[in-house]
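Input (structure):
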């Protein structure tokens, strides 16, 4: 059933301000949106429209590739939670399968970074 509910809009300039109370407020807004709606829209961030368009174009190219090519970057080949995740790669509830695929990236860290050496979750090099 379609919803007529609009996505929550979160002002990211609060996070970027560096002021701890505003950073905390922004984090709480994101947390709340994730828990209640499952999605949100960020405004007042530093990512240019041009970069957004280029990113979407590259995503479209990648996800159009045959599964065999995408699996060459399977995130199961590393401990950093980086790379491609196939449809059904996550299961949040018994008896259900996620019907999405994804490609996980974050700050690209070298193997000698202290967070990587300490095996901090989600910290490491990206798969390209």
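Output (sequence):
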């Amino acid at each position: 059933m379609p919803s007529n509910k609009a996505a929550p809009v979160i002002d990211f300039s609060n996070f970027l301000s560096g002021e701890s109370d505003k950073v905390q407020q922004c984090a709480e807004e994101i947390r709340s949106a994730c828990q209640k709606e499952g999605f949100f829209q960020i405004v007042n961030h530093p990512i240019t429209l041009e970069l957004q368009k280029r990113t979407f174009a590259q995503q479209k190219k990648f996800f159009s590739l045959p599964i065999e090519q995408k699996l060459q970057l399977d995130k199961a080949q590393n401990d950093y939670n980086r790379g491609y995740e196939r449809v059904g790669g996550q299961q949040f509830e018994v008896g259900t399968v996620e019907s999405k695929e994804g490609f996980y990236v974050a700050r690209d860290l070298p193997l000698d970074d202290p967070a990587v050496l300490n095996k901090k979750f989600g910290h490491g090099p990206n798969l390209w």
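Notes: The mean pLDDT is 91. Residues 14 and 48 are 18 Å apart (CA to CA).
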